[in-house]
Batch of 2 targets.
Target 1
Amino acid sequence: MKPCNHHERCIDTALHNAQDLCIKHNMHFTPLRRQVLKLIWQNHIPLKVHTIVEKLKLVGMEVKPISVYRVLDFMQEYGLVHKLTSQNSFLGCSHPSINHNCYFIICQVCYKVEEACQEDVLNNIHMSLDKKNFLPKHITLEIQGICQECQN
């Protein structure tokens, strides 16, 4: 997995992208939305809702899980986060302005996740689905294994 040595830069970029998106769509980037996105970007390990709720408590924000789910639904709709279905967890999207499907490489040892966006992989999936006359509404491809750092 590619190491990130600049989490603050990742966080700042994600917050800036979200702020721009909200302005563009005439929506509010509420303090709760801002804090949830900030928590998601603090590292590159997907977070579950109950973990987000606990981390929000640590910064003085008492919220119910349903409120966090609503924030995450908003963020998914606008491409700010991805949901990893197999883990029921959420991960920040590194390119929210580009609307395309990606797949995820998940290390089962260190739990880091890498977003991979190779169009040929997804094109093959779409061609296969077209042959079956199947219209996908959402595709999430997750590949689990052990990253190179954990293999060493």
Target 2
Amino acid sequence: MGKGYNVVGVNPVYEGETPIPLYKTLDDIPHRIDIVDVFRRSEYIYEIIPSVLKMRPNVLWLQLGIRNDEAVEPVAKAGITVIQDECIKIEYYNCY
């Protein structure tokens, strides 16, 4: 957010206050998303793939320690950039 990006969160169970808009699912986000940045364990990546394919972001980013080549294959085949097992903050600061 401090770099000018609009950030929203997705959490199906959290009910409290947050500094950003929070949605229950990816499908509930009412506007276009450029990057879906995932902080879920590798075995749960399959669950988000249909929503990612539907919303067609530019990038599906799986954070450090998260990798599931089989689950993300349809996303890559759809022309969406897939990044796995990397921290977006570290990569951003390495570029700028």
